[in-house]
Every structure is written in structure tokens, then in C-alpha cells.
Predict the 3D structure of the following.
Amino acid sequence: MLVGGLAGGAAALALPACRASGTSLDAQVVVLGAGLAGLYAAMLLQDEGRDVLVVEAAERIGGRMFTLEHADGQTEGGGQQIGASYARVLDVADRLGVALYTEEGRGPGTSHYLGGRWQGGAVEVPEFPKGFRQTPPSSVLFRLLADTPGLASADGWWEADPALDVSAESFLAARGFDAPARALVERSLNANSLATYSMLNLHRTWRLYQDSAGMGPTRYVEGGSQRLPEAMAESLARPVALSEPVLRLTQTARHAEVITDKRTLRCEHVVCALPFPALRTIGFASANPARADAIAALPYTQIVQHHFRTVSPFWEADGLSPSQWTDTPTERLFAGTDRNAQLAGLHRGWINGEGCGAPEAASAQSYLDTLARLRPSTTGALTPLASVRWTRDNALAGGAYYHWAPGQARRWAGAMGEPEGRIHFAGEHLGMLHTGMEAAMESAETASLVLIEA
Ligand SMILES: Cc1cc2nc3c(=O)[nH]c(=O)nc-3n(C[C@H](O)[C@H](O)[C@H](O)COP(=O)(O)OP(=O)(O)OC[C@H]3O[C@@H](n4cnc5c(N)ncnc54)[C@H](O)[C@@H]3O)c2cc1C
């Protein structure tokens, strides 16, 4: 069985066979990246008795599971919500004693700012076609999907009817949303632009959402999301090599080589669990044409977050909600809440997609300056704590998560994760059933199984 007991059992027997036998290998398997995918692959391979070394460029464990510690609390810079269908994430958390919690109650509502004025209560969007004018711009696509034939199953989505694989732009245009209306939907799109975002992504999300309805509540990691990958790293026999960027990856008939900024690691196999934009920056030429194309062009959603301490309750001064959606470059501002949906004294500014090029994304102060002009009560009410950039200039991620542009899934999804000689691939972009954290785990399981059987 692949998934066995952890540190106390098989792991304790995971003798570094290659070193013990006196060969010149540095590990049987070198895993690139200490995110969920790399760590889960390492755990599974260790359970099977392999000597595994994880190499990570950053100073911390976790990758896109990133908890920011502030003097008076935590905010999440990365993944947070654990869906009820995330069997692997839930199982690993359980086995490693990582506590999860659910949220009770509902957080504050959202005030909308459109066309230069605030809307305190129900949203009214004159640009939208009749029947949609009371729909918040961020809900339009899902509302339309609910009335559109979609994926019959969460499986095999990459071979879906090409009619589902059209851009969000043409999908909306065909339903009466003109350019100004589409610009409002694009403002908070969870991608980079309507034109480069395939509706297949949303059909998939919608199918997964429907399939998991009724399975249970969304969960969160006690003490912050990053505690989960940290516990996974802790369960490994060999400590993760931190602050050691991989610069190049090669292989011969006899072994694979991982060249870092400090050394050359020789091993039998590599599990490369880097996001494709990170793989773009290291010396690796894939012989698999689908993967080579995908490494070069798979889009990743650009996100900038500014994290703030809430110094005073500015919403009490103007009667609007503590959270807001705007059609300005400040995009969205979320009030942080605790597990009982009570305000936690923290706010997060959130800019998506092409808006990440705006001055408001470049600095927290610029964000606050624009915010103060459109909502004067925020003046002096928020203090910058940190900014997180899931953008192209973040060489370790390149973005928050991947998505498909129209036509890409059919060409690449089936082939871009295949092993290449001694090199195996994992990461959230290679989940064939799930998305997000669970996709990272699913892809790690697939890669480990294939490697073990190789
Ligand atoms: C803002 C945000 C919100 C999210 N919300 C959710 C959510 O609510 N629910 C959900 O399910 N998912 C969510 N996700 C997605 C989820 O966090 C990711 O899918 C998952 O954590 C990805 O894991 P991974 O191991 O594939 O990649 P990563 O976590 O990106 O791991 C890759 C690792 O490789 C390292 N690396 C990169 N380059 C090199 C190099 N040259 N050498 C060595 N190491 C390198 C990186 O530093 C990183 O640690 C969110 C992500 C973001 C950014």
C-alpha cells in the first residue's frame, strides 16, 4: 500500500539506501519544492522506504500555503479553504495531528462602489442586461453557469465539448453583456482577463462545487494554513534543504542531476513539484512538446494583496460595510474575521489580474491614498503590515494558481504531467480531478505511484 504510517513506522526504516550502499548518489529521490505537492510526494516515497531529500528555494516551508504572522494575529497570503472533498488534505492533517476548524456565522456584507458613487444596500448595475442589474459583478459568471449546460462529470473535463472551452469574453458577449458590462465583470475576475480565460475553468469549478455540496463544511488550519506543510516537512526523515534554489535539472541514463546554487545532487529520480512559471526560470528543456509549450505559456492568475491592521472602525463613520468591491484600481477590500465571523482587526486589499500593474498594486501606501479619495473615512484607519505578490515578478510562483486559456486544456492537460525519463512532475497544475490544495496532493500521489512502479 502506498500510504502507510508516517514518521514512526516505515519512515523510521527509510534507510538512505543509496548512501548506505556506498554509491555516489545524494538521495534516491530529490524533490524540488516544499509546497504541498513536493512534501506529500516526499512523505509517500519515504513511506515506501525511499531516501528522499526535498530542496526548497525559499527560507520557509509551504510555498503557496503562506501564513503571515502579525503582532496581533495572522492573515493568510495563500491557500486557506479546505473543501469537504479534499480527502488527502483532510487525511494528512488528521494523521499528523494538525487541527482544523470550521467557521460559524456569516461575515460582514459588501458595499459596492460603481461609476463614482457608493451603493450602501442592494447592488444596482445599470450597465448589465435586464435581469442582471441586481447581481454583483463578482457573481455574474456563476449565475450564468447555473443556467448553462456544463460538465456531466468532474472527470475527463479536458476532452469536454469545445463549446464549453470558449473565452469568458465571448461567453458574456453572447449573453448580452456589452464592453462596459464586461469590464465590470473583469474587474474582480479570478484570472487575468476575460479574453484569455476559458469558461472550462468555471465549468470545472462549478461541477466540483455541485459534487461536494452536502459533503460537509469548509475547514481551515488552526494557527494558520502554513502549519500543515510545516507538519508534513517535520514528518520527513531528512530535513528540507531551505534557501537552496534549484538552477538546473538534467538526466543521464544512469542518474538525474539537480544543480542548486550550492551543489550538484545526484539521484535516481526527481519529483519536480515547481509551478510552471518557476520551471521557466531554471535550466530545464522538456522533450515533451505539450509540456514545453505549457511551461512557456500556461497562464497563472496574478494577485497582489496588501495586508493592513485596522486601527479604527471606519465603516461606523460612513455607514458602509467593512468590506468593499469597487470598479477602481483598489478593486476589493476584505475585512478579516475570526472563526465566529467577528471582525478580527485586520483588512486585506486584493487586486487581481491586469490590475496588478497599477500603482495601487505596487505599494500599500499608493493603495491607501486612492482608497482615502474614494472612501474618506479610511484615512488613517488602516496601517500597512505586509504586501504579498503572486505575480510574474515572484520567480518562485509566477502567480497564485494556473488556469486554462481557451483551447489549451485539450492540447496539454493529458500530456504535460507525464514523466520524462527519471523526472516526474507534480503540483496543483497537474491535478486531473481536483483543484487547489487537493490537486497538489492528488498530483503528488500520481507521481509517487508511477515512480514506485518504474
Ligand atoms: C492567494 C491564494 C489563495 C488560495 N486559496 C486557496 C484555497 O482557499 N483553497 C485551495 O484549495 N487552494 C487555494 N490556493 C491554491 C493552493 O494554495 C495551491 O494550489 C497549493 O498550495 C499549491 O501547492 P504546490 O505544491 O503545487 O505549489 P507551491 O506551494 O507553489 O510549491 C512549490 C514550491 O517550489 C518552490 N520553488 C520555486 N522555484 C524553486 C526553485 N528554483 N528551486 C527550489 N524550489 C523552488 C517554491 O518556493 C514553493 O515552495 C490559493 C493560492 C493562493 C496563492
Remarks:
- Residues 32-38, 55-58, 63-65, 78-81, 245-246, 273-275, 278, 282, 303, 390, 396-397, 400-401, 427-428, 436-437, 440 surround flavin-adenine dinucleotide (CB under 6 Å).
- The first helix runs from residue 17 to 20.
- The CA atoms of residues 317 and 377 lie 6 Å apart.
- The chain has a mean pLDDT of 93.
